[in-house]
Amino acid sequence: MNAAREGGSCRSCAHFHNDPKYLEAAFPGWTALGSAYGSTRAEDGICELHGLYLSAAQGCDRHEAKNCAPT
Amino acid sequence: MAATQVPIQAGPGSQQDKMGWKELYLKEDWWAIWLGVGIVLVAWLFFVNGSSIKWIAVTPGKWSNFGQLAADFGAHIGQYFAQFVFWLAIFCVSVRVMGHKLGEFIPSFIFVYIASIVIFMIGAWDQASYYNLEPPLVALAFGLLLSNFVGLPKWMDTGFRVEYYVKTGIVLLGATLPFTLIVWAGPVAIAQASIVSIVTFLVIYFTGKKLGLDRRLCATLGAGGAVCGVSASIAVAGAVGAKKEDAPVAITMVIIWAIVMIFALPLASRLMGLSTGVAGAWIGTSEFADAAGFAAAQAYGNLAGQVQGIPGKPEDAVQTFTLMKVVGRDVWIGIWAFIMAIIATTRWEVQTGKKPDAAEIWWRFPKFVIGFAITSLFLTVVAAQYSRADFNKIVNPVLVAPIKDLRTWAFIFCFFSIGLTTRFRELAHAGTKPFWAFTTGVAVNVVLGYVLSVVVFGAYWSGIGR
Q: What is the H or E stretch that residue B392 is in?
Protein backbone atom coordinates (compact mmCIF):
# COMPACT_ATOMS: atom_id res chain seq x y z
CA MET A 1 0.00 0.00 0.00
CA ASN A 2 2.94 2.31 0.43
CA ALA A 3 3.51 2.17 -3.26
CA ALA A 4 -0.04 3.28 -3.77
CA ARG A 5 0.51 6.35 -1.65
CA GLU A 6 3.75 7.04 -3.50
CA GLY A 7 1.95 6.65 -6.83
CA GLY A 8 4.30 4.17 -8.55
CA SER A 9 4.14 3.50 -12.28
CA CYS A 10 1.89 0.92 -13.89
CA ARG A 11 5.02 -1.13 -14.62
CA SER A 12 5.30 -2.06 -10.94
CA CYS A 13 1.56 -2.27 -10.24
CA ALA A 14 -0.27 -5.49 -9.42
CA HIS A 15 -3.24 -4.40 -11.56
CA PHE A 16 -1.05 -3.99 -14.65
CA HIS A 17 -0.35 -6.97 -16.92
CA ASN A 18 2.03 -6.72 -19.86
CA ASP A 19 3.31 -10.26 -20.22
CA PRO A 20 3.09 -10.89 -23.98
CA LYS A 21 1.46 -14.30 -23.53
CA TYR A 22 -1.21 -12.76 -21.28
CA LEU A 23 -1.85 -9.96 -23.77
CA GLU A 24 -2.15 -12.27 -26.78
CA ALA A 25 -4.71 -14.32 -24.87
CA ALA A 26 -6.60 -11.17 -23.83
CA PHE A 27 -6.78 -9.69 -27.35
CA PRO A 28 -8.24 -12.34 -29.69
CA GLY A 29 -6.82 -12.23 -33.18
CA TRP A 30 -3.68 -10.32 -32.28
CA THR A 31 -1.37 -13.15 -33.38
CA ALA A 32 -3.03 -13.47 -36.80
CA LEU A 33 -1.42 -10.30 -38.13
CA GLY A 34 0.62 -9.05 -35.21
CA SER A 35 2.47 -10.03 -32.09
CA ALA A 36 2.78 -8.95 -28.48
CA TYR A 37 6.47 -9.84 -28.74
CA GLY A 38 7.12 -7.04 -31.26
CA SER A 39 8.96 -3.79 -30.62
CA THR A 40 6.02 -1.56 -31.51
CA ARG A 41 4.13 -2.60 -28.36
CA ALA A 42 6.98 -1.26 -26.22
CA GLU A 43 5.92 -2.19 -22.66
CA ASP A 44 2.22 -1.40 -22.93
CA GLY A 45 -0.20 -3.56 -21.02
CA ILE A 46 -3.65 -3.89 -19.53
CA CYS A 47 -4.76 -2.20 -16.32
CA GLU A 48 -7.41 -4.59 -15.05
CA LEU A 49 -8.51 -2.08 -12.43
CA HIS A 50 -9.45 0.69 -14.85
CA GLY A 51 -10.06 -1.54 -17.88
CA LEU A 52 -7.52 0.32 -19.97
CA TYR A 53 -4.71 -0.62 -22.33
CA LEU A 54 -1.90 1.83 -21.66
CA SER A 55 1.78 2.58 -21.36
CA ALA A 56 3.80 1.04 -18.52
CA ALA A 57 5.05 4.52 -17.67
CA GLN A 58 1.58 5.67 -16.62
CA GLY A 59 0.43 5.63 -13.04
CA CYS A 60 -2.43 6.55 -10.73
CA ASP A 61 -3.22 6.86 -7.04
CA ARG A 62 -4.71 3.35 -7.01
CA HIS A 63 -1.29 1.81 -7.51
CA GLU A 64 -0.67 -1.50 -5.73
CA ALA A 65 2.86 -2.81 -5.62
CA LYS A 66 3.21 -6.16 -7.39
CA ASN A 67 4.21 -7.94 -4.18
CA CYS A 68 1.00 -6.74 -2.45
CA ALA A 69 -2.40 -8.28 -3.05
CA PRO A 70 -4.61 -5.94 -5.04
CA THR A 71 -7.60 -4.59 -3.18
CA MET B 1 -14.97 3.19 -16.04
CA ALA B 2 -14.80 5.48 -19.06
CA ALA B 3 -11.32 6.17 -20.32
CA THR B 4 -11.68 9.91 -20.08
CA GLN B 5 -12.59 9.77 -16.39
CA VAL B 6 -9.49 7.98 -15.15
CA PRO B 7 -6.90 10.32 -13.64
CA ILE B 8 -3.88 8.71 -15.26
CA GLN B 9 -0.58 10.43 -14.72
CA ALA B 10 3.10 9.71 -15.19
CA GLY B 11 4.34 7.66 -12.26
CA PRO B 12 7.55 8.61 -10.45
CA GLY B 13 8.67 5.01 -10.57
CA SER B 14 8.42 4.88 -14.33
CA GLN B 15 12.18 4.69 -14.76
CA GLN B 16 12.42 1.54 -12.64
CA ASP B 17 12.66 -1.97 -14.06
CA LYS B 18 12.33 -0.86 -17.65
CA MET B 19 12.81 -3.44 -20.33
CA GLY B 20 15.28 -1.09 -22.06
CA TRP B 21 17.96 -2.96 -23.95
CA LYS B 22 16.73 -6.30 -22.68
CA GLU B 23 14.59 -6.09 -25.79
CA LEU B 24 17.70 -7.20 -27.68
CA TYR B 25 16.81 -10.74 -26.65
CA LEU B 26 13.19 -10.42 -25.51
CA LYS B 27 11.63 -8.92 -28.65
CA GLU B 28 11.17 -10.84 -31.86
CA ASP B 29 12.19 -7.82 -33.95
CA TRP B 30 15.74 -8.19 -32.69
CA TRP B 31 15.71 -11.94 -33.08
CA ALA B 32 14.62 -11.47 -36.70
CA ILE B 33 17.70 -9.28 -37.13
CA TRP B 34 20.03 -11.80 -35.48
CA LEU B 35 18.67 -14.64 -37.62
CA GLY B 36 18.40 -12.72 -40.90
CA VAL B 37 21.75 -10.95 -40.68
CA GLY B 38 23.35 -14.16 -39.40
CA ILE B 39 22.08 -16.15 -42.39
CA VAL B 40 23.33 -13.48 -44.81
CA LEU B 41 26.77 -13.40 -43.16
CA VAL B 42 27.07 -17.20 -43.21
CA ALA B 43 25.99 -17.21 -46.86
CA TRP B 44 28.65 -14.62 -47.64
CA LEU B 45 31.35 -16.58 -45.77
CA PHE B 46 30.50 -19.68 -47.80
CA PHE B 47 30.55 -17.56 -50.95
CA VAL B 48 33.99 -15.99 -50.39
CA ASN B 49 35.38 -19.45 -49.64
CA GLY B 50 34.19 -20.75 -52.98
CA SER B 51 31.08 -22.51 -51.71
CA SER B 52 27.39 -21.74 -51.23
CA ILE B 53 24.48 -22.36 -48.86
CA LYS B 54 22.28 -23.35 -51.80
CA TRP B 55 22.45 -27.02 -50.77
CA ILE B 56 20.40 -26.27 -47.67
CA ALA B 57 18.18 -23.66 -49.37
CA VAL B 58 16.46 -26.40 -51.34
CA THR B 59 13.07 -25.77 -52.96
CA PRO B 60 10.85 -28.05 -55.08
CA GLY B 61 11.65 -28.02 -58.78
CA LYS B 62 9.04 -27.44 -61.48
CA TRP B 63 6.98 -30.55 -62.20
CA SER B 64 4.19 -31.59 -64.52
CA ASN B 65 3.34 -35.07 -63.20
CA PHE B 66 3.53 -36.89 -59.88
CA GLY B 67 6.40 -39.05 -61.07
CA GLN B 68 8.58 -35.99 -61.54
CA LEU B 69 7.48 -34.58 -58.20
CA ALA B 70 8.28 -37.81 -56.34
CA ALA B 71 11.64 -38.17 -58.07
CA ASP B 72 12.62 -34.60 -57.25
CA PHE B 73 11.60 -34.93 -53.62
CA GLY B 74 13.34 -38.29 -53.25
CA ALA B 75 16.55 -36.88 -54.69
CA HIS B 76 16.58 -34.01 -52.21
CA ILE B 77 15.03 -35.52 -49.11
CA GLY B 78 18.28 -35.23 -47.17
CA GLN B 79 18.48 -31.53 -47.98
CA TYR B 80 14.89 -30.97 -46.82
CA PHE B 81 15.67 -32.73 -43.56
CA ALA B 82 18.82 -30.64 -43.06
CA GLN B 83 16.89 -27.48 -43.79
CA PHE B 84 14.17 -28.47 -41.34
CA VAL B 85 16.77 -29.05 -38.63
CA PHE B 86 18.34 -25.69 -39.46
CA TRP B 87 15.06 -23.76 -39.13
CA LEU B 88 14.03 -25.71 -36.05
CA ALA B 89 17.35 -25.07 -34.30
CA ILE B 90 17.47 -21.33 -34.88
CA PHE B 91 13.81 -20.81 -34.05
CA CYS B 92 13.97 -23.02 -30.95
CA VAL B 93 16.78 -20.99 -29.42
CA SER B 94 15.00 -17.70 -30.02
CA VAL B 95 11.47 -18.68 -29.01
CA ARG B 96 12.78 -20.33 -25.85
CA VAL B 97 14.63 -17.15 -24.83
CA MET B 98 11.47 -15.14 -25.50
CA GLY B 99 9.57 -17.41 -23.11
CA HIS B 100 7.72 -19.89 -25.31
CA LYS B 101 7.51 -23.59 -24.45
CA LEU B 102 9.59 -25.80 -26.73
CA GLY B 103 7.24 -28.68 -25.97
CA GLU B 104 4.58 -26.69 -27.80
CA PHE B 105 6.74 -25.03 -30.45
CA ILE B 106 8.53 -28.12 -31.78
CA PRO B 107 5.50 -30.28 -32.74
CA SER B 108 3.75 -27.19 -34.05
CA PHE B 109 6.69 -26.19 -36.24
CA ILE B 110 7.04 -29.75 -37.56
CA PHE B 111 3.44 -29.43 -38.74
CA VAL B 112 4.12 -26.00 -40.29
CA TYR B 113 7.22 -27.22 -42.12
CA ILE B 114 5.62 -30.35 -43.57
CA ALA B 115 2.60 -28.36 -44.74
CA SER B 116 4.92 -25.72 -46.22
CA ILE B 117 6.68 -28.37 -48.32
CA VAL B 118 3.31 -29.44 -49.71
CA ILE B 119 2.30 -25.81 -50.38
CA PHE B 120 5.65 -25.14 -52.08
CA MET B 121 5.18 -28.27 -54.22
CA ILE B 122 1.71 -27.14 -55.31
CA GLY B 123 3.20 -23.81 -56.37
CA ALA B 124 5.89 -25.60 -58.39
CA TRP B 125 3.29 -27.40 -60.52
CA ASP B 126 3.52 -26.11 -64.08
CA GLN B 127 -0.26 -25.55 -64.15
CA ALA B 128 -0.40 -23.76 -60.79
CA SER B 129 -0.77 -20.25 -62.22
CA TYR B 130 -3.52 -21.42 -64.58
CA TYR B 131 -5.55 -22.57 -61.57
CA ASN B 132 -4.56 -19.57 -59.39
CA LEU B 133 -2.69 -21.91 -57.03
CA GLU B 134 -0.11 -19.34 -55.96
CA PRO B 135 1.70 -20.55 -52.81
CA PRO B 136 0.79 -17.50 -50.68
CA LEU B 137 -2.90 -17.87 -51.47
CA VAL B 138 -2.84 -21.66 -51.11
CA ALA B 139 -1.07 -21.34 -47.75
CA LEU B 140 -3.59 -18.79 -46.52
CA ALA B 141 -6.65 -20.68 -47.76
CA PHE B 142 -5.38 -24.01 -46.41
CA GLY B 143 -4.66 -22.43 -43.02
CA LEU B 144 -8.08 -20.74 -42.90
CA LEU B 145 -9.83 -24.01 -43.72
CA LEU B 146 -7.95 -25.88 -41.01
CA SER B 147 -8.46 -23.28 -38.30
CA ASN B 148 -12.11 -22.51 -39.02
CA PHE B 149 -13.53 -25.85 -40.13
CA VAL B 150 -11.27 -28.50 -38.61
CA GLY B 151 -9.76 -26.82 -35.59
CA LEU B 152 -6.31 -27.29 -34.13
CA PRO B 153 -5.31 -27.30 -30.44
CA LYS B 154 -4.75 -23.79 -29.11
CA TRP B 155 -1.29 -24.68 -27.80
CA MET B 156 -0.13 -25.11 -31.39
CA ASP B 157 -0.33 -21.32 -31.83
CA THR B 158 3.13 -21.28 -30.23
CA GLY B 159 4.52 -22.37 -33.59
CA PHE B 160 2.28 -20.15 -35.72
CA ARG B 161 4.33 -16.98 -35.20
CA VAL B 162 3.14 -14.90 -38.18
CA GLU B 163 5.03 -11.74 -37.27
CA TYR B 164 8.26 -13.48 -36.36
CA TYR B 165 8.36 -15.34 -39.66
CA VAL B 166 7.52 -12.29 -41.76
CA LYS B 167 10.09 -10.12 -39.97
CA THR B 168 12.77 -12.76 -40.54
CA GLY B 169 11.72 -12.90 -44.19
CA ILE B 170 11.89 -9.11 -44.51
CA VAL B 171 15.44 -9.01 -43.10
CA LEU B 172 16.42 -11.67 -45.67
CA LEU B 173 14.58 -9.70 -48.33
CA GLY B 174 16.96 -6.79 -47.71
CA ALA B 175 19.75 -8.88 -49.24
CA THR B 176 17.85 -8.98 -52.53
CA LEU B 177 16.93 -5.29 -52.63
CA PRO B 178 19.76 -2.89 -53.60
CA PHE B 179 20.32 -0.21 -50.98
CA THR B 180 20.62 2.33 -53.77
CA LEU B 181 17.02 1.51 -54.73
CA ILE B 182 15.86 2.19 -51.18
CA VAL B 183 17.66 5.55 -51.16
CA TRP B 184 16.37 6.42 -54.63
CA ALA B 185 12.75 5.33 -54.21
CA GLY B 186 12.40 5.91 -50.48
CA PRO B 187 11.39 9.59 -50.64
CA VAL B 188 8.65 8.89 -53.21
CA ALA B 189 7.41 5.96 -51.13
CA ILE B 190 7.37 8.08 -47.99
CA ALA B 191 5.56 10.94 -49.75
CA GLN B 192 2.92 8.64 -51.24
CA ALA B 193 2.47 6.68 -48.03
CA SER B 194 2.22 9.85 -45.95
CA ILE B 195 -0.56 11.28 -48.13
CA VAL B 196 -2.58 8.07 -47.95
CA SER B 197 -1.89 7.46 -44.26
CA ILE B 198 -2.90 10.93 -43.12
CA VAL B 199 -6.04 11.03 -45.28
CA THR B 200 -7.10 7.51 -44.24
CA PHE B 201 -6.52 8.20 -40.56
CA LEU B 202 -8.52 11.43 -40.66
CA VAL B 203 -11.38 9.80 -42.59
CA ILE B 204 -11.67 6.93 -40.10
CA TYR B 205 -11.23 9.17 -37.08
CA PHE B 206 -13.82 11.76 -38.04
CA THR B 207 -16.27 9.21 -39.43
CA GLY B 208 -16.03 7.40 -36.11
CA LYS B 209 -16.52 10.64 -34.20
CA LYS B 210 -19.50 11.50 -36.38
CA LEU B 211 -20.99 8.10 -35.56
CA GLY B 212 -20.55 8.80 -31.85
CA LEU B 213 -17.56 6.55 -31.10
CA ASP B 214 -15.10 7.34 -28.32
CA ARG B 215 -12.13 9.28 -29.70
CA ARG B 216 -9.66 6.70 -28.36
CA LEU B 217 -11.40 3.98 -30.32
CA CYS B 218 -11.46 6.29 -33.36
CA ALA B 219 -7.70 6.81 -33.07
CA THR B 220 -7.08 3.08 -32.59
CA LEU B 221 -9.17 2.24 -35.66
CA GLY B 222 -7.58 5.05 -37.67
CA ALA B 223 -4.05 3.85 -36.99
CA GLY B 224 -5.02 0.31 -38.00
CA GLY B 225 -6.30 1.48 -41.36
CA ALA B 226 -3.67 4.10 -42.03
CA VAL B 227 -0.31 2.98 -40.74
CA CYS B 228 0.49 -0.60 -40.04
CA GLY B 229 -2.57 -2.70 -39.25
CA VAL B 230 -2.71 -4.56 -35.96
CA SER B 231 0.67 -3.31 -34.72
CA ALA B 232 -0.23 0.34 -35.25
CA SER B 233 -3.68 -0.08 -33.72
CA ILE B 234 -2.23 -1.55 -30.57
CA ALA B 235 0.66 0.93 -30.39
CA VAL B 236 -1.75 3.87 -30.64
CA ALA B 237 -4.21 2.22 -28.24
CA GLY B 238 -1.41 2.08 -25.66
CA ALA B 239 -0.26 5.61 -26.42
CA VAL B 240 -3.71 7.13 -25.90
CA GLY B 241 -4.74 4.83 -23.04
CA ALA B 242 -7.64 3.23 -24.90
CA LYS B 243 -10.29 1.09 -23.27
CA LYS B 244 -9.30 -2.54 -22.98
CA GLU B 245 -12.01 -3.57 -25.45
CA ASP B 246 -10.98 -1.03 -28.13
CA ALA B 247 -7.91 -2.86 -29.43
CA PRO B 248 -9.75 -6.15 -30.13
CA VAL B 249 -12.36 -4.22 -32.14
CA ALA B 250 -9.60 -2.69 -34.27
CA ILE B 251 -7.90 -6.09 -34.61
CA THR B 252 -11.14 -7.59 -35.93
CA MET B 253 -11.55 -4.84 -38.51
CA VAL B 254 -7.94 -5.04 -39.67
CA ILE B 255 -8.02 -8.83 -40.02
CA ILE B 256 -11.28 -8.92 -41.96
CA TRP B 257 -10.22 -6.26 -44.44
CA ALA B 258 -6.63 -7.49 -44.71
CA ILE B 259 -7.85 -10.99 -45.63
CA VAL B 260 -10.28 -9.53 -48.18
CA MET B 261 -7.50 -7.41 -49.71
CA ILE B 262 -5.09 -10.35 -50.00
CA PHE B 263 -7.43 -11.74 -52.64
CA ALA B 264 -9.06 -8.53 -53.93
CA LEU B 265 -6.00 -6.39 -54.73
CA PRO B 266 -4.16 -9.01 -56.83
CA LEU B 267 -7.43 -9.86 -58.58
CA ALA B 268 -8.18 -6.21 -59.38
CA SER B 269 -4.58 -5.69 -60.52
CA ARG B 270 -4.84 -8.72 -62.79
CA LEU B 271 -8.10 -7.55 -64.31
CA MET B 272 -6.54 -4.17 -65.05
CA GLY B 273 -3.29 -5.71 -66.30
CA LEU B 274 -1.15 -3.65 -63.94
CA SER B 275 2.59 -4.17 -64.05
CA THR B 276 4.07 -6.00 -61.08
CA GLY B 277 5.85 -2.86 -59.88
CA VAL B 278 2.69 -0.76 -59.93
CA ALA B 279 0.56 -3.47 -58.33
CA GLY B 280 3.15 -3.91 -55.56
CA ALA B 281 3.07 -0.19 -54.83
CA TRP B 282 -0.73 -0.20 -54.71
CA ILE B 283 -0.77 -3.20 -52.41
CA GLY B 284 1.86 -1.53 -50.23
CA THR B 285 -0.29 1.57 -50.00
CA SER B 286 -3.65 -0.09 -49.44
CA GLU B 287 -3.02 -3.35 -47.56
CA PHE B 288 -3.23 -3.17 -43.79
CA ALA B 289 -0.53 -5.50 -42.52
CA ASP B 290 2.94 -6.55 -43.64
CA ALA B 291 2.23 -10.28 -43.63
CA ALA B 292 -1.02 -9.91 -45.57
CA GLY B 293 0.57 -7.51 -48.03
CA PHE B 294 3.50 -9.78 -48.75
CA ALA B 295 1.05 -12.60 -49.48
CA ALA B 296 -0.79 -10.41 -51.99
CA ALA B 297 2.36 -8.94 -53.57
CA GLN B 298 4.13 -12.28 -53.89
CA ALA B 299 1.02 -13.93 -55.31
CA TYR B 300 0.72 -11.22 -57.98
CA GLY B 301 4.43 -11.17 -58.74
CA ASN B 302 4.38 -14.92 -59.33
CA LEU B 303 1.89 -14.37 -62.16
CA ALA B 304 4.40 -12.38 -64.22
CA GLY B 305 5.79 -14.56 -66.94
CA GLN B 306 3.13 -17.19 -66.24
CA VAL B 307 0.02 -15.27 -67.25
CA GLN B 308 -0.23 -13.13 -70.36
CA GLY B 309 -0.86 -9.40 -69.97
CA ILE B 310 1.03 -8.86 -66.72
CA PRO B 311 4.16 -6.83 -67.45
CA GLY B 312 7.18 -6.58 -65.18
CA LYS B 313 9.41 -9.00 -63.30
CA PRO B 314 8.08 -11.23 -60.48
CA GLU B 315 10.40 -9.62 -57.95
CA ASP B 316 9.18 -6.07 -58.74
CA ALA B 317 5.88 -6.58 -56.88
CA VAL B 318 7.58 -7.57 -53.64
CA GLN B 319 10.19 -4.83 -54.01
CA THR B 320 7.76 -1.96 -54.58
CA PHE B 321 5.47 -3.36 -51.89
CA THR B 322 8.37 -3.35 -49.45
CA LEU B 323 9.35 0.19 -50.35
CA MET B 324 5.80 1.43 -49.84
CA LYS B 325 4.85 -0.57 -46.76
CA VAL B 326 8.07 -1.04 -44.81
CA VAL B 327 9.95 2.13 -45.78
CA GLY B 328 6.95 4.36 -46.46
CA ARG B 329 4.60 3.35 -43.63
CA ASP B 330 5.98 1.01 -40.97
CA VAL B 331 8.93 3.13 -39.84
CA TRP B 332 6.62 5.97 -38.77
CA ILE B 333 4.64 3.93 -36.27
CA GLY B 334 6.51 5.35 -33.26
CA ILE B 335 5.97 8.90 -34.44
CA TRP B 336 2.24 8.29 -34.92
CA ALA B 337 2.03 6.85 -31.41
CA PHE B 338 4.01 9.76 -29.96
CA ILE B 339 1.86 12.38 -31.70
CA MET B 340 -1.32 10.66 -30.58
CA ALA B 341 0.03 10.47 -27.02
CA ILE B 342 0.68 14.21 -27.09
CA ILE B 343 -2.82 14.91 -28.40
CA ALA B 344 -4.38 12.55 -25.84
CA THR B 345 -2.53 14.13 -22.94
CA THR B 346 -2.62 17.77 -23.92
CA ARG B 347 -6.03 18.05 -25.57
CA TRP B 348 -8.08 15.12 -24.26
CA GLU B 349 -6.85 15.01 -20.65
CA VAL B 350 -5.31 18.41 -20.04
CA GLN B 351 -5.94 18.16 -16.31
CA THR B 352 -3.41 15.36 -15.72
CA GLY B 353 -0.49 17.32 -17.15
CA LYS B 354 1.57 14.23 -17.98
CA LYS B 355 4.13 14.44 -20.75
CA PRO B 356 4.82 11.71 -23.30
CA ASP B 357 8.47 10.72 -23.55
CA ALA B 358 10.02 11.20 -27.01
CA ALA B 359 12.17 8.13 -26.34
CA GLU B 360 9.03 6.09 -27.00
CA ILE B 361 9.55 6.82 -30.71
CA TRP B 362 12.68 4.69 -30.54
CA TRP B 363 11.28 1.98 -28.29
CA ARG B 364 8.27 1.56 -30.59
CA PHE B 365 10.37 1.61 -33.75
CA PRO B 366 9.94 -1.67 -35.70
CA LYS B 367 13.57 -2.73 -35.27
CA PHE B 368 13.47 -5.43 -37.94
CA VAL B 369 13.64 -2.56 -40.45
CA ILE B 370 17.20 -1.97 -39.22
CA GLY B 371 18.07 -5.55 -40.14
CA PHE B 372 16.43 -5.07 -43.54
CA ALA B 373 18.62 -1.98 -44.15
CA ILE B 374 21.78 -3.77 -42.93
CA THR B 375 21.38 -6.77 -45.24
CA SER B 376 20.50 -4.50 -48.15
CA LEU B 377 23.56 -2.31 -47.57
CA PHE B 378 25.83 -5.32 -47.05
CA LEU B 379 24.86 -7.08 -50.26
CA THR B 380 25.00 -3.81 -52.19
CA VAL B 381 28.62 -3.33 -51.07
CA VAL B 382 29.43 -6.95 -51.96
CA ALA B 383 27.79 -6.59 -55.38
CA ALA B 384 29.70 -3.38 -56.07
CA GLN B 385 32.92 -5.45 -56.29
CA TYR B 386 31.65 -7.20 -59.41
CA SER B 387 30.74 -6.22 -62.95
CA ARG B 388 27.08 -6.61 -63.92
CA ALA B 389 27.93 -9.71 -65.96
CA ASP B 390 29.83 -11.32 -63.08
CA PHE B 391 27.06 -10.42 -60.67
CA ASN B 392 24.49 -12.20 -62.82
CA LYS B 393 26.80 -15.16 -63.46
CA ILE B 394 28.41 -15.61 -60.05
CA VAL B 395 26.97 -13.55 -57.18
CA ASN B 396 23.31 -13.93 -57.99
CA PRO B 397 23.08 -17.73 -58.32
CA VAL B 398 25.63 -18.61 -55.64
CA LEU B 399 24.97 -15.98 -52.97
CA VAL B 400 21.70 -14.08 -53.56
CA ALA B 401 19.42 -16.83 -54.91
CA PRO B 402 19.81 -19.17 -51.88
CA ILE B 403 19.05 -16.27 -49.52
CA LYS B 404 15.97 -15.52 -51.62
CA ASP B 405 14.89 -19.17 -51.39
CA LEU B 406 15.22 -19.16 -47.60
CA ARG B 407 13.22 -15.92 -47.55
CA THR B 408 10.48 -17.64 -49.53
CA TRP B 409 10.36 -20.43 -46.95
CA ALA B 410 10.03 -17.90 -44.12
CA PHE B 411 7.19 -16.19 -45.97
CA ILE B 412 5.35 -19.48 -46.54
CA PHE B 413 5.62 -20.27 -42.81
CA CYS B 414 4.10 -16.82 -42.30
CA PHE B 415 1.28 -17.08 -44.84
CA PHE B 416 0.24 -20.50 -43.56
CA SER B 417 0.33 -19.19 -39.99
CA ILE B 418 -1.95 -16.27 -40.90
CA GLY B 419 -4.61 -18.76 -41.92
CA LEU B 420 -4.02 -20.99 -38.92
CA THR B 421 -4.39 -18.13 -36.41
CA THR B 422 -7.34 -16.40 -38.09
CA ARG B 423 -10.30 -17.95 -36.28
CA PHE B 424 -13.24 -15.79 -37.27
CA ARG B 425 -15.53 -17.03 -34.50
CA GLU B 426 -12.97 -15.96 -31.86
CA LEU B 427 -12.63 -12.38 -33.10
CA ALA B 428 -14.21 -9.67 -30.98
CA HIS B 429 -17.61 -8.41 -32.10
CA ALA B 430 -16.86 -5.05 -33.68
CA GLY B 431 -20.32 -3.52 -33.97
CA THR B 432 -21.74 -1.60 -36.90
CA LYS B 433 -20.34 1.85 -36.04
CA PRO B 434 -16.67 0.76 -35.91
CA PHE B 435 -17.31 -1.31 -39.02
CA TRP B 436 -18.59 1.64 -41.02
CA ALA B 437 -15.94 4.02 -39.72
CA PHE B 438 -13.17 1.62 -40.71
CA THR B 439 -14.79 0.58 -43.98
CA THR B 440 -15.16 4.21 -45.07
CA GLY B 441 -11.42 4.57 -44.53
CA VAL B 442 -10.78 1.37 -46.48
CA ALA B 443 -12.74 2.71 -49.47
CA VAL B 444 -10.84 6.00 -49.46
CA ASN B 445 -7.52 4.23 -48.92
CA VAL B 446 -7.99 1.82 -51.84
CA VAL B 447 -9.13 4.52 -54.29
CA LEU B 448 -6.46 7.03 -53.25
CA GLY B 449 -3.82 4.27 -53.25
CA TYR B 450 -4.86 3.36 -56.80
CA VAL B 451 -4.77 6.97 -58.03
CA LEU B 452 -1.31 7.60 -56.56
CA SER B 453 0.21 4.22 -57.52
CA VAL B 454 -1.26 3.93 -61.01
CA VAL B 455 -2.13 7.42 -62.24
CA VAL B 456 0.27 9.79 -60.47
CA PHE B 457 3.37 7.62 -59.92
CA GLY B 458 2.55 4.74 -62.30
CA ALA B 459 5.50 5.32 -64.63
CA TYR B 460 7.79 5.59 -61.64
CA TRP B 461 6.71 2.31 -60.02
CA SER B 462 6.54 0.36 -63.28
CA GLY B 463 10.14 1.35 -64.02
CA ILE B 464 11.48 0.42 -60.61
CA GLY B 465 13.00 -2.87 -61.76
CA ARG B 466 15.03 -1.11 -64.42
A: none
CA distances in angstroms from B262 to B17, B33, B297, B427, listed in the order given = 41, 26, 8, 19
pLDDT at res. A68: 53
Of B386, B384, B333, whose CA–CA distance to B362 is shortest? B333
Q: Are B289 and A10 a contacting pair at CB < 8 A?
A: no
B10 membership: H or E segment, kind and range: strand B9-10
Provide the residue count of chain B. 466
Task: Give SS3 for B175.
Answer: coil
Q: How confident is the model at residue A1 (pLDDT cuts 50, 70, 90)?
A: very low
CB pairs under 8 A between A and B: 208
Nearest to A59 among B11, B237, B248 (CB): B11
Q: Is A7 left (phi over 0), alpha (psi -120 to 50) or beta?
A: left
Per-residue pLDDT at B331? 85
DSSP secondary structure, chain A, as one string: -HHHHHT-BGGGBTTEE--HHHHHHHSTTHHHH--TTSGGGTT-EEETTTTEEE-TTEE-TT--BTTS---
Provide the residue type at A19 as one letter. D
Residue contact B428–A28, C-beta within 8 A: yes
Interchain contact A68–B (C-beta under 8 A): no
Spatial separation of the C-alpha atoms in residues B159 and B95, rounded to whole Å:
9
Question: Residue B281 and residue B193: Cα distance in Å, rounded?
Answer: 10
Give CA–CA dist A51/B300, Å, rounded. Answer: 43
Q: How far is B427 from chain A (nearest CA, A)?
A: 6
User: What would you report as the CA-atom Rg of chain B, rounded to the nearest whole angstrom?
Assistant: 22
Residues whose CB is less than 8 angstroms from the CB of residue B64 and which lie 6 or more positions away in sequence, other chains included: B125, B126, B127
Q: Which helix (H) or strand (E) holds B49?
A: none
Helix then strand then coil, in percent of chain B rounded to 5, is 75, 0, 20
What pLDDT score does B381 carry? Answer: 93
What is the ipTM metric for this complex? 0.87
Could you give the 3-state DSSP secondary structure of residue B63? strand
Which pLDDT does position A3 carry in this prediction?
38
- Going through B107-250 in order, the beta strands assigned E by DSSP cover 242-243
Residues on chain B touching A59 (C-beta within 8 angstroms) = 8-14
Mean pLDDT by 10 residues, chain B (466 residues): 44 57 92 97 96 95 94 96 97 96 96 96 90 89 94 94 95 91 86 92 96 95 91 93 94 94 94 94 93 92 84 91 90 89 80 68 91 94 90 92 95 95 88 94 96 92 77
Contacts of B280 (CB under 8 A, 6+ apart): B297, B300, B301, B316, B317, B318, B319, B320, B321, B322, B324, B461
Chain A partners within 8 Å of B13 (Cβ): 3, 6, 8-9, 11-12, 59
What's this model's pTM, rounded to 2 decimal places?
Answer: 0.90
State how far the Cα of B168 lies from the Cα of B273, in Å rounded to an integer: 31
Domain ranges of chain A: 2-60
